Amino acid sequence: MSDSHRRTLPEQDTIFALSSGASQKAGVAVIRISGPHADVVLRHLLSAQDVSDPDPELALPKARMASLRKLFGGISSTSVDAGAALVGNMKEILDQALVLRFPGPRSFTGEDVVELHVHGGLAVVSAVTNELMRLRMHPLAIPLRPAEKGEFTRRAFENDRMDLTEVEGLADLISAETTEQRRLALRQMGGNLRVLYDSWRAQIIKCMANVEAVIDFGDDVDDDALDAMAPLLRDLEAELSAHVQDNRRGEIVRSGVRVAIVGAPNAGKSSLLNALAKRPAAIVSSVAGTTRDVIEVHLDVAGVAVILSDTAGIREETEDAIEQIGIERAKQALADADLVLHVVDVRQTDGASMRAFSDTQSDSVGVVTVFNKTDLSSEEERQVAAATMQQLGRAKGSELWISCTTGAGMDAFQSAFETRVRELLWNNSSGTGHECDASPTAVITRARHRVHVENAIHSLRTFIHEFLEQNNLPLDIATEELRHAASELGQITGTIHTEDVLDIVFQDFCIGK
Ligand SMILES: Nc1nc2c(ncn2[C@@H]2O[C@H](COP(=O)(O)OP(=O)(O)OP(=O)(O)O)[C@@H](O)[C@H]2O)c(=O)[nH]1
Ligand SMILES: [Mg+2]
C-alpha cells in the first residue's frame, strides 16, 4: 500500500483511442492522444510529407484553441492505384478535422493531450487510427500505443487531477441513464465526496498530531489537550454516523429503486407491469398462476431509475411444483424490494391473502395497496375493500384504485407512484424534481465507501470510549485507532490505495475513457 499515489514513473507511453461513442453514424468522432509525445504525433499528422522528422517549425494550434486542420497519412496502395496525385513522399489527406491541444498539466490526464475531432464515419476513424498505428513503427520509434480500458482516467488519477471518488463519479456520469443518476454523478465528479472525506481526514490527523505532541512531551498526559479534543472527536463521530444513516439513497439512485409487484394470483399484477412498461413484457391470462418467474423491466420514473419486478401470485395451497418455486421467488423479490406494489382484485379483499401478505412484508419497506379491476366491482365491494384497509391499520385513502383494462385511475396511480419513489429517496414528495439540488449533501454511492466510513466510525468510537472515557488503553495504542480512522477515509479518496482497489474502480471504464 502506498501512502501517496504520486509515483515516479518511467517515461510514459503516449496513448490514443477513440473517445466518443461507438455509433458509426455520428457526425463527429473524437480521437484522443495523451502522453509526452502527443505534440510530436500531431506534427506528423499535420505534415503533408512523409518524412521521419517533420518540420519542427510547423505551426501547431495554440493551446486550448480549436483549429481546423488537414490530417495526413501514409500513402495507401489503393490511392496510388487510383492514380491519386501523389508526388514524391507526399501523404494523402485523411480528413479535415478540428484539432485541440491541451498541454499538461492543464489537461484531463495532466499530460500533454491532443484531441482530433474528425468526421464520424468508420472509414475516417480507421484511417486516422491506422496512421497512429503506423507511427508506432516509425523510424523515430515514438512510444505510441492504443490506450487500455480506463487508461486516460487512470492517468488523470495518477497525476492528481482526480481522486478516486471523482473517478467513480465520472464512470457513473458516463453510464447515467436517468436525471437523478446524472445529478448524483455530476456532484460526485465535482468533488463533493472528496471535500467531505478530506476534511474529516484532516481533522483526525490534526487530533493525531496533538496526541503525538502529548506523547513526545512525556509520560504525563496533558489532560487539557485531551479534554479539548474530546468534543471535536465526538462531533466528528456523530457526523460520520449521520452520513451512513442515509437509507442507502445514493446507492439506490445509482443502482435503481427495486419495486416488486406482488399479490394473489390473477389480481392483475402482470397487467399493471405491462401498463407501466408500456409494452407487453409479461404474459397476461385469465388462468390463475400464469406468471412463474420474476420478470424485471427497467423504467425511468420521474428521473429515477426503477427496476420493476412482476412476480408469481402468492397463494398458500398449490400442487404445482413449478408454481411453488415461483412463489418462493416472489417472496424473495418482496424481501429485496425498496417499495412494494400490492395488487388486489377489489372484489376479493376479504380473503386470507391480504392478511397473509401483510404478515410477510417488512416494516421498513413502503407498501402501496393497489385495488385493481374497479371496472368489474360494485360500490359495495369497494366499501368492503376500504374497510379491510382500515382493519389492517392502513391510513385512510392510502390505497389506489385502478382498472388495468379500462385505464381508469391510471393517471392518479402514476403520479402517486412517482411521489412514493421520490419520497423513498428524499422524504420529500414535492415532486419538483430538484430535491437533490436543494440539498447538495454528499451521499454515499457505493458499498466501498460505506465499508470504509463504518470502519472509521468503529475506530473513532474505540478511541473515544476506550481511551477518552474509560482510560482502558495506553495513549500510543489508542492513537493507532485514530491513525486507522484516517487511513480508512484516505482509502475512499485513494490517497491511500492498493493496485487491487484501482483495478476494481477502473474496470467500470471502457476504452477511450
Ligand atoms: N376486467 C378487468 N380485467 C382485468 C383487469 N386487470 C387484469 N385483468 C384480467 O385479469 C386476468 C389476470 O391478469 P394478470 O395480469 O395475468 O394477473 P396476474 O396477477 O399477473 O396473475 P398471475 O400471474 O396468474 O398471478 C387477465 O385475464 C386480465 O385480462 C382489470 O382491471 N379489469
Ligand atoms: Mg402474472
From TrEMBL:
One Gene Ontology cellular component: mitochondrion
Keyword GTP-binding part of the UniProt annotation: yes
InterPro entries found in the cross-reference section: G_TrmE, GTP-bd, GTP-bd_TrmE_N, GTPase_MnmE, MnmE_dom2, MnmE_helical, P-loop_NTPase, Small_GTP-bd
GO molecular function: GTP binding; GTPase activity
Domain TrmE-type G: 256-422
GO BP term, example: tRNA methylation
Gene3D superfamilies documented for this protein: P-loop containing nucleotide triphosphate hydrolases, Probable tRNA modification gtpase trme, domain 1, tRNA modification GTPase MnmE domain 2
Subcellular location as annotated: Mitochondrion
Key words of the record: GTP-binding, Nucleotide-binding, tRNA processing
Family the UniProt entry places it in: Belongs to the TRAFAC class TrmE-Era-EngA-EngB-Septin-like GTPase superfamily. TrmE GTPase family.
Protein's recorded name: tRNA modification GTPase GTPBP3, mitochondrial
Native organism: Porphyridium purpureum
